[in-house]
Amino acid sequence: MEKLIIEGGIPLRGHLKISGAKNAALPLIAATLLTPGRHILRNVPDLRDTRTFLKLMESLGVTWHYDGYSLNIDSTRLGFSEASYELVKTMRASVLVLGPLLARLGRARVSLPGGCAIGERPIDFHIRGFEKMKVNIRLEQGYVDAEIDGRLQGGSINFDIPSVTGTENILMAATLAQGTTVIKNAAKEPEIGNLVDMLVGMGAVIEGKDTDRLTIQGVEKLRPAECEIIPDRIEAGTYLIAVCATGGEATISGCNPSHLPSLLDKLRTAGCLIEEDGSSIHIAARGNGGGEFSIGSADIKTMPYPGYPTDLQAQFMALMSLSNSVSVIKETIFENRFMHVAELRRLGADIQTDGHTAVVKGVGTKGLLGAPVMATDLRASSSLVIAGLAASGRTEISRIYHLERGYEKLVDKLSNLGARVWKEQE
Ligand code: EPU
């Protein structure tokens, strides 16, 4: 196993290009199962999760060729309709094959994901949604066994709370259902808009893109897709926070600033100067370049899009650990997403938690000291990277395979911004 070594205390400066979004790439790859043929996806990030998902696709009979940017998928021959526990346990997003397999083959068997580091994360909304589409579902021996006689039937589905992959799963299935499906209280994350664009390009009839009500008029047939993955807003947000935390200045290009409304607002509150144009963001920490810099405090509460994203909560907590005041961080999406707190404390952060609320007493921009820490999940790991970059001395982060799930070329990108960071064998 590898660990990441960071010699911190260097302001990040320069230019960085953002990769395609992991959480858009996975559903878009799943959507190629909907119809036979050769599909082309571009701007596909080279990540551990992308590779795991392609392994799953392969196990279903799909062939593919990937050059690190363009992914060609041939889904003509599907031999299997089962996603095994071996694959699903390493990546919950595997559940996204359920909708497309049901729509194309009329049956699917997908392992139940089980618990994960950030919370229980059930898939009951997906299951209830498919039941509304007249799918027979049995839960047996850790698997969801789903089958339909004939075609899926359109239905009216109302999510108790907006679910990202739940919306995506039902949306994909509904494109080939008989009749109209309405998804109410749908999630509105930009990755869902990307999926809608791809499906419409394949011949699907969908209304309500980027709203909480999607109406899908089922069609008999779709055609193969050609689509580009949107930029990764969480990757962009992570680097913006890292630049601010180290007192640096950088331009982040190839991103979509309009997908980060809440974070940009909070970074401005924390004192950063931010300029946006259509596809790039320039950020400068307050006082950067003058030797001393400071970070103001800002409170956050995670919410479905366009609220503050849960996937940027841990990173913002690392930033607030360095502020000159107190901030309150509330996690409302996942029940166990404070695993980074104990690790941040190892670097000297002053954080108290009570249920879903964390009170962070900033120790100032010179207050953290490097230490050995352990990555627990993807976003928790990136918060440790940010804290390590800002801390003085050496930080060693073990179990970095978590980071490789969602950050493409992390070491190269940080090195280009002047960070002293490298990998070593544990
Ligand atoms: N929920 C249920 N039942 C369900 C589905 C969801 O109770 O059937 C609950 C969840 O437990 C959670 C809330 O609804 O409390 C929202 O969960 P959601 O379904 O939206 O999460 P997800 O689709 O499993 C995606 C991202 C996550 C991201 C969340 C929230 C992908 C592949 N994953 O997960 O990304 O945190 O939405 O925005 O799109 C990450 O990239 O690090 C990551 C965890």
Task: Describe the overall structure.
The structure is a single chain. With 426 residues, the chain is of the alpha/beta class. It has two domains: 2-19 and 231-425, UDP-n-acetylglucosamine1-carboxyvinyl-transferase, Chain, CATH 3.65.10.10; 22-228, Enolpyruvate transferase domain (UDP-n-acetylglucosamine1-carboxyvinyl-transferase, Chain). Helix content is 30%, strand content 25%. It has helices spanning 22-31, 48-59, 85-88, 98-105, 124-132, 164-174, 190-201, 233-245, 261-269, 313-320, 340-346, 378-390, 401-404, 410-416; strands at 2-7, 13-17, 38-42, 63-66, 71-74, 82-83, 107-111, 136-140, 143-147, 156-158, 180-184, 205-207, 213-217, 226-228, 249-253, 273-276, 280-284, 300-301, 326-330, 350-354, 357-361, 372-374, 394-398, 420-425. Strands 22-23-1-24 form a four-stranded mixed beta sheet, with helices on one face. A four-stranded mixed beta sheet has the order 2-15-17-16, covered by helices on one side. The model has no long low-confidence stretch (mean pLDDT 95). Residues 23, 26, 92-93, 119, 121-126, 161, 163-166, 187, 310-311, 333-334, 378-379, 406 line the site of uridine-diphosphate-2(N-acetylglucosaminyl) butyric acid (EPU).
